[in-house]
Amino acid sequence: MKVKECAKCPKSGNVMYRVKIDATKNWFFLCKDCTNIEKDNNKFYIYGGTWKGYQ
Fold it and tell me: Taking the complete model, does pTM exceed 0.85, yes or no?
């Protein structure tokens, strides 16, 4: 099983969400909690897919 770390908090997991959260064209992997915070409060938020490390 593969694991990634969240780009915003110290959590790691086998399911992360690929998102854009700023004006740059960079993608970040965020945990579910951080993704929900960014989705509700960030005008730059763009969802780019779900990474699953258990496949």
Answer: yes
